[in-house]
Amino acid sequence: MELFPVFFGTKSLNVVVFGGGENARRKVRLLAKTHARVDVIAPVFSPEFVNEFAGRVGFAPEALTEVLVSEAKFVIIAIEDDEPALEAALNLVRQYNLPVNVVDRPELCDFTVPSILDRGSVVGAIATGGAAPVMARNIRSRLEALLPKRTGDLANFARGFRGKVKARFAEESDRRAFWENMLRGPIAEKVLAGDEGAARVEMDAAIEAGKTEKTGIVHIVGAGPGDLELLTLKALRVLQDADIVFYDNLVGADILDLIRRDADRVSVGKSKGYHSVPQEDIHELLIMAAKAGKRVVRLKGGDPFIFGRGGEELGALLAEGIEAQVVPGISSALGCAASAGLPLTHRDHAQSVTFVTGHARNGRVPDLDWPSLARQNQTVVVYMGVGTSAQISENLIAAGRGASTPVAVIENGTRENEIRAYGKLSELACLIEGNGIKGPALLIIGEVAALPELFLSSMQKSLEIVE
Ligand SMILES: C[S@@+](CC[C@H](N)C(=O)[O-])C[C@H]1O[C@@H](n2cnc3c(N)ncnc32)[C@H](O)[C@@H]1O
Predict the structure, then answer these.
(1) pLDDT digits (tens, 9 = 90+) for 266-311
(2) How far is CA 55 from the centre of its chain?
(3) pLDDT tens digits, 47-83
């Protein structure tokens, strides 16, 4: 290990920064987030620098240099374009034997300022010893994406209960088991969701009961329409933290690859016309896993609450008193629309958008309100409508929608094998058959379905003009 990270408590820490330029300002911006007393020394400061930290940081005249340095714990020298001034500052700091960082001069540094991961009282430091600072920043961003915003709140919350936990659990092993369960279980999730009041009540009850066994939790998670990058940060976090994941057919292999290696994966693969695990059995599996104290993820394509039976699963879990949270996903309508450049609403063409299912329990087209769906200036998005598309177009036209209304059919939207087909409402079934579309696919009906081709032709025209 070339570098050794240490963390200074900042409550009674004095730091001196030399320099009035941008480099100094960047370092002061980091220090200003701490409790430290920060004094900046320079012959002149820009008004922007002073305004940014007014009242928080001392802007000291050079006459005070020696006094301030003598009181400091460490010093940062960020003097730009003035070598004699830099050397003078460095000599003074060396006289006091203080650790010093000289910005952009690694050979003069006793310490480096790492890339800082800041989650309140949880702080991480990433450094590459000056080899590749950009890499340190990239690593920090990736870690930040995995750590919930309220991680620091959770640490503070735990700190507030340390005394009570110590008093309740005499054995060190019981204390550790309690903390491990608490920091991964429903109480922690409540704190991370911003509900500290409820978390506090549950924490008191768990301490009182001397509870050391695990409490299960189920996250019903939307995996989005297919593209891995459309997964939310929260979905990624709970997926990587799960003990067991129950997933649907619509979830792609690259998303499943994000699951922790030692977690169990169970396919409850529902696909069109084939329910490999009946819905009630899925409820039972989720309930049993949660009751065994596991962190359970129920992973579904798109969004769990849009034609995803997320409501049924949530109801079944809550009825058993199991802690359950829903993590939304990007529904396929939104993913497909974005991927095709097809705005679902548009001021000139569609003032509303309606999501309907094209598939009733009996496999036929559902009993929808066709006259209202046939009204102009709206977009109708049909999920699971490939098999019933002929009936859907017939019903809409019979209810008054124009036969030439534009339609788009998008299969495997946002995935590498995405297919898009454009045509008219009267030709919907032929369009699907002609393009060999089997699903998963969405039918998008309304004037907006003509916009991708319109956008494309106007772009081609403008390119011709440029040529
Ligand atoms: C049971 S529903 C689930 C919908 C999902 N909960 C959502 O929010 O997208 C399955 C239907 O969603 C649509 N679908 C899901 N993923 C899709 C994709 N990548 N491209 C097109 N349609 C998709 C299809 O209509 C498919 O038949």
Answers:
(1) 999 865 555 578 999 999 999 999 999 999 999 999 999 999 999 9
(2) 35
(3) 999 999 988 999 988 888 899 999 999 999 999 989 9
Q: Count CB neighbours of 464 within 10 A.
A: 8
Q: pLDDT for 381-399, tens place per residue?
A: 999 999 999 999 999 999 9
Structure tokens at 125: 């430091």
Q: Is 225 in the pocket of ligand 1 (CB under 6 A)?
A: yes
Q: Give the distance from CA 330 to its chain's centroid.
A: 12
Are 375 and 399 contacting, i.e. CB atoms less than 8 angstroms apart?
A: no
**What three-state secondary structure class fits 22?**
helix
- The whole-number average pLDDT for the span 90-115 is 93
- What's the full length of the chain, in residues? 467
- Beta strand pairing call for 324-327 and 352-357: unpaired
Could you confirm whether 270 is annotated as catalytic?
Answer: yes
The CA 333 to ligand 1 mean position distance, Å, reads: 8
Starting at the edge strand found earlier in the chain, the sheet holding 14-18 runs 58-60, 37-41, 14-18, 74-77, 100-102
**383 CA from centroid of ligand 1 (Å):** 6
Q: With beta carbons less than 8 A apart as the criterion, state whether 189 and 326 touch.
A: no
